[in-house]
Amino acid sequence: MWKAPDLHHYLKLAIGFCLVYVVLKAVQLYFHRRRQVEIFKQFPGPPCHWLMGNADKFKRDGKDLDTLVNWTEKYSGAFPVWFGNFTAFLFITHPDYAKAIFAREDPKSSLSYGFLVPWIGKGLLILSGPKWFQHRRMLTPGFHYDVLKPYVKIISKCTTDMLDKWEKNITKQKTLELFQHVSLMTLDSIMKCAFSFESNCQKDSDNAYTNAVFDLSYLANLRLRHFPYHNDTLFYISPHGYRFRKACRISHDHTDKVIQQRKKSMKQENELEKIKQKRHLDFLDILLLARDENGQGLSDEDLRAEVDTFMFEGHDTTASAISWILYCMAKYPEHQQKCRKEIREILGDRQIMEWEDLSKIPYTTMCIKEGMRMYPPVPGVARSLRSPITFFDGRSVPAGTLIGLSIFGIHKNANVWENPEVYDPLRFSPENSANRHSHAFLPFAAGPRNCIGQNFAMNEIKVSVALTLNRFQLSPDLANPPKKIPQLVLKSLNGINIHIAKLK
């Protein structure tokens, strides 16, 4: 008579399979580590903890980036950094190494950028290969100066709204945390410039879409920094995972609604000419009109990915840049005064910037660039090598190597910049700039994968800095200096706090 196998038999089989899997995985990790150790023998680096690698040196206390700078001084411009015992990045902090990497089109590292995909999809930031090249070519017309020109007045109005709010609050509180205010302003600007969308987010910061964008930025950073959340299942079942999915739905619903409304209006005959008569041609118009060599436009999925990518890259990074630059202005009053004098000579009694003004503030522009050298809005980027590379000094690494390009480290490298901790705008005078290494200053990265929106960002930074200095005296909050933390953008653990006073 046939007898069914008992539960105990199946349990033993399951345990056996689990043990075999664990052993095979352990062997795989062992040989993977041995291979990485062999690769990085040629690159001396900081000593590793037996379990944590170098991760225990990053304490999120505002000194993590300074640790990288110290390692740069000790181990030259390229050294391995281990996150745990099995994952290592070759950190690059010298322009000669950076030049070799930025000249290529290697994909972004999924370990650093993969967590953004559920939110921003596979747009320019994430894509690689032929599809990235196709999208880059289709989107480039959206950043032509004819398209950017009308944005200056829009950014001026958004900045003025922010400054009006400061002026109302100045009687209550003279200390201001910059990032929260500037971030709302850049979000307002990007929605008006890129999508002709009136968000009203500076006056009503509690609307669902605004909160969703801020939540997504925060949660993507949180997931990146917390190793257990790297596991999709653990993150999915966590309260943070639920909050992330909810924010994604709100963001995607909003983006889809804006795209569909615009598509519907553009179906009308001669709509493009009507648009030009009513308002500026915006980024969404460019996206919808873009065609590849076969006459094909972007799919709905690609459209949403590029819109959400532009929303992320266009507000958070610029908010970081503006906030740190204004902090520098507060910290160095002699430069603040020189900038203000230059700005007032251009503006006179005007309260808004014009397109032509942007090229007439050279000293302010030098101060902006020095602020971005001291505090680069994107402190680092990561690549996964598609093919082997040999650097200028003869050292090589194979395909699959993870590269961490520390923009902050390059900007603070004492072998590249004299007295790198000193704020000196004259580094960016025409004569000094002419003699500088092409990859010593990288606030927008470099090479074929550089920031496509860098001109838009620089215009927004110039407008907001100029209008702020024209209206307010800034001074540092000496009792509460910022503590730098490297996230997807450079932020401060305790905010970026300054004192403000209304000028006559």
Automatic annotation (TrEMBL):
Main location: endoplasmic reticulum
GO molecular function: heme binding; iron ion binding; monooxygenase activity; oxidoreductase activity, acting on paired donors, with incorporation or reduction of molecular oxygen
Stored InterPro entries: Cyt_P450 (IPR001128), Cyt_P450_E_grp-IV (IPR002403), Cyt_P450_sf (IPR036396), Cytochrome_P450_Monoox (IPR050196)
Binding site for heme: C451
SUPFAM superfamilies reported for this sequence: Cytochrome P450
Membrane-spanning segments: 12-31
Keywords assigned: Endoplasmic reticulum, Heme, Iron, Membrane, Metal-binding, Monooxygenase, Oxidoreductase, Transmembrane, Transmembrane helix
GO cellular component: endoplasmic reticulum membrane
Localization of this protein: Endoplasmic reticulum membrane
UniProt KW Glycoprotein keyword: no
Family per similarity comment: Belongs to the cytochrome P450 family.
UniProt-listed PANTHER family: CYTOCHROME P450 FAMILY 4, CYTOCHROME P450, FAMILY 4, SUBFAMILY B, POLYPEPTIDE 1
Name of the protein this chain belongs to: Uncharacterized protein
